[in-house]
Amino acid sequence: MARNHVERLGEFRDILVATRREGVRNVHHTRDAMRASGFQIGDSEGSSYGAELKVLQEEIEAVDRAIEDEKRLALALESAAQSRRPTKPRIVKGT
């Protein structure tokens, strides 16, 4: 079950990364188009995306932490399950 959670979180992370990349691509595309049209573009153009980029990056990092947490939980559950498994009695000969 935890593996399923990790996979879903990974897919969600992929969506966030794609969104971040698309946003950066759009900023550059818009700046290039404005320059090509003769607009004077300052260094601050596109910086309004910076706030959105920061939020996206924080979300990506939160998902990364969630993935690591799910992996730790899966290991802990697996370890607990193994410790509860009955062990076969050892047969000792000649005592």
From TrEMBL:
It comes from the Bacteria. This is Uncharacterized protein. It comes from Mesorhizobium sanjuanii.
